[in-house]
Design a protein that fits this description.
Blueprint: E1 6-8, H1 9-23, E2 27-31, H2 35-38, H3 41-46, E3 51-53, H4 58-70, E4 74-80, H5 81-87, H6 89-97, E5 104-108, H7 126-131, E6 137-139, H8 144-153, E7 161-164, E8 169-171, E9 186-189, E10 194-198, H9 202-214, E11 220-224, E12 227-229, H10 233-243, E13 246-253, H11 258-269, E14 274-279, H12 289-295, H13 300-314
Parallel strand pairs: 2-3, 2-4, 4-5, 5-7, 6-7, 10-11, 10-13, 13-14
Antiparallel strand pairs: 1-8, 6-12, 9-11
Amino acid sequence: MKDVKMIPQRDGYGLGLLELCKDRQDVMVLDADVAASTRTNWVRDQYPDHFMNLGISEQDMVGTAAGLALGGMIPYVSTYGVFLSGRAFDQMRTTVCYNNLKVRFGGAHAGISVGPDGATHQALEDLALARVLPNMTVIAPCDSEETRKAVIAAADIDGPVYFRFGREAVPLITDEDTPFQIGKARLVQDGKDCAVFACGAMVYEALLAAETLAEEGISLRVLDLHTVKPIDEEAILAAAKECGCIVTAEEHQVSAGLYSAVAEVVVRGCPVPMEAVAVQNTFGQSGPPADLMEKYGLNAAGICQAVRRALARKA
């Protein structure tokens, strides 16, 4: 793939919030003193009446968001995903999800590609923590434009929503006309030999893998599984039946994230060989984002290897 524009996903988060604040009075953006990092400073500067800085107090911020939701507002809680899902888990669980409140959680700087910040700031468990919670919708968009669409689309759905997006610039592989529907996987490329379900930055890597494998005569189906919960069971079972093996790709721990979510569907409906491209039960390290992605096999080469393993088991 040539001439791909690189844009941080967090830009899409900020743009989506700007559109919401422009058009409606019930949206409130909450920040934990990281507004420049999450791009919520754009809201602060243009729509100050829609912005609140709660300071470095994630638990208080979620509690405040719950109160706003009970008062009829739609709060977008915004901070690093590792702190939001970790430090404020109890408030997310008991205050928001238990009461099925319309709070939106913006988990920024997710994945290992946060890079130099190291293991303490690399959210590799947030998908697992978010998707286990009853009533929670969980979305991991593939690029900035899909993030923008997700932020806007989530405004009116019932219950809480968790967004997961990264800090680094990633290839822009969707545009304004690309379909996006919460709960429906997007077919990026059709194929018949193996299906790859990817989320976040790994969708682009899956497309690169498809190009490499095509030279080997392998036809890869690539799907953008941006909604981890509720998951698109129809697309997963169709891929299992039609392709005969599946690979998942995520910038997250192998346990309880995308791989587990897809496997739960496959094992019930159409058991086929599955392989996972993910962080394998370890913490990350500090380093340049691209180097870390390569070290942990979160790239096209890692996907190619997983596809070959899945095909060998299928055979």
